[in-house]
């Protein structure tokens, strides 16, 4: 029986990706473990495409549906241009609920600078809460989109904003009553407001203009899952410094309350940026000047060094294992 959340990496490879046999020569980046975007050759340009669902959120689903796919496009250093939405609603959904979802989506799309160009809306008994699948599109001059395949030993791992950002906002929005046991109303309001920062389009485009060795928006599986996926694509190792990973106090309190790991909690709004030693300071300066917090949390190493997390409590190092079901499902799936 499969658990809630993304398929683990081995299953994804064996029962999904390995079943895709036909290959088109125009496809420059195709389906693969850790790959968020496909890239297709359109002559002078590359078309960058990404699809994602929103299934674990209830109160902010319209907003998140826009940002999660646009963030994938931005992780290639590309500005998203268009997006489609497939909206599936449970029987009994009120018209006001549909209106709220689309108002959220419309506002988020305007903020991201992306046009909603089409999609599908349906009421169906196949779902018991709203589900949205979004597909975003971007365009880059041929050869300029960023890729984790550009990573090399010696590169630095940069991270924007704070760990568990999206998961904190979702839990605070959907479980506000429960959280009153441990948080003040001001702290709950602050946690909810973290969802205002789930876009990484700004830092992705800035970093893409300077040049990176690959980027990854941090979604299901959290910080450590994203690091593992990038190292899997590049075939390299890493050392991540736990004490350098920024995290909000409210995130720590929520994750401690539910017994979950903030390093494995969905973190849309945070971007991993692999920076060459020559461009590290330039990238950090440009992103910081744009008003976006950025930290250096580790370094890429040769493959034989493995993938290791240096614990902040001084207890040594711990292996970074492949991502499994996100910690969020331990809360929303109870």
Average pLDDT reading:
92
**What is the beta-strand fraction?**
15-25%
Taken in chain order, the helices and strands follow as HEEEHEHEEEHHHHEHEHEHEEEH
Largest sheet: 7 strands, mixed
Instruction: Indicate the percent of residues in helices.
Output: 25-40%
Beta-strand segment tally:
13
CATH class category of the largest domain? Alpha Beta
**Separation of termini?**
17 Å
The CATH H-level superfamily of the largest domain is PurM-like C-terminal domain
User: What is the rounded Rg?
Assistant: 19 Å
How are the strands of the largest sheet arranged?
Answer: 8-10-7-11-9-12-13
| SS-derived structural category | alpha+beta
Structural commentary:
This protein has 334 residues and is an alpha+beta fold. The chain has two domains: 25-141, 2-Layer Sandwich (60s Ribosomal Protein L30, Chain: A); 148-332, Phosphoribosyl-aminoimidazole Synthetase, Chain A, domain 2, CATH 3.90.650. Helices cover 33% and strands 24% of the residues. The chain contains eleven helices and 13 strands. The chain has helices spanning 9-15, 61-74, 95-112, 165-174, 176-179, 185-193, 201-210, 222-234, 249-258, 280-289, 329-332; strands at residues 27-29, 38-42, 45-54, 80-89, 115-123, 131-141, 156-160, 215-217, 237-241, 271-275, 294-301, 307-310, 317-319. Strands 8-10-7-11-9-12-13 form a seven-stranded mixed beta sheet, sandwiched between helices. Strands 1-2-3-6-4-5 form a six-stranded mixed beta sheet, with helices on one face. Helix 2 (61-74) runs parallel beside helix 3 (95-112) and helix 4 packs across helix 6 (185-193). It is globular, with a radius of gyration of 19 Å. It starts with 8 loop residues before the first helix and ends with a helix. The relative contact order is 0.18.
């Amino acid at each position: 029986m499969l658990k809630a959340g993304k398929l683990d990496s081995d299953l994804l490879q064996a029962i999904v990706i390995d079943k895709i046999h036909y290959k088109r020569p125009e496809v420059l980046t195709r389906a693969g473990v850790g790959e968020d975007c496909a890239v297709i050759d359109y002559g002078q340009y590359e078309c960058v495409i990404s699809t994602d669902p929103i299934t674990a959120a209830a109160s902010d689903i319209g907003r998140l549906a826009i940002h999660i796919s646009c963030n994938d496009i931005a992780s290639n250093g590309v500005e998203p241009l268009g997006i489609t939405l497939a909206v599936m609603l449970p029987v009994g959904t009120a018209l006001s609920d549909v209106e709220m979802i689309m108002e959220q989506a419309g506002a988020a799309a305007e903020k991201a600078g992306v046009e909603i160009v089409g999609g599908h809306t349906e009421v169906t008994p196949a779902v018991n809460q709203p589900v949205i699948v979004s597909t975003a599109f971007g365009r880059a001059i041929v050869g300029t989109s960023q890729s984790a395949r550009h990573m090399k030993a010696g590169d630095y791992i940069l991270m924007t904003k704070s760990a568990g950002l999206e998961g904190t906002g979702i839990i605070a929005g959907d479980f506000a009553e429960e959280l009153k046991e441990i948080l003040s109303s001001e702290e709950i309001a602050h946690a909810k407001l973290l969802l205002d920062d789930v876009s990484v389009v700004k830092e992705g485009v800035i970093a893409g203009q300077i040049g990176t060795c690959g980027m990854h928006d941090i979604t299901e599986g959290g910080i450590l899952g994203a690091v593992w996926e990038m190292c899997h694509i590049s075939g390299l190792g890493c050392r991540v410094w736990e004490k350098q990973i920024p995290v909000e106090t409210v995130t720590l309190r929520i994750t401690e309350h539910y017994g979950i790991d903030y390093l494995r909690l969905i973190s849309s709004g945070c971007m991993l940026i692999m920076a060459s030693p020559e461009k590290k300071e330039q990238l950090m300066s440009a992103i910081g000047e744009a008003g976006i917090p950025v930290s250096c949390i580790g370094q890429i190493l040769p493959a034989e060094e493995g993938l290791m997390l240096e614990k902040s409590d001084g207890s040594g190092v711990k292996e970074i294992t492949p991502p499994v079901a996100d910690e969020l499902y331990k809360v929303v799936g109870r």
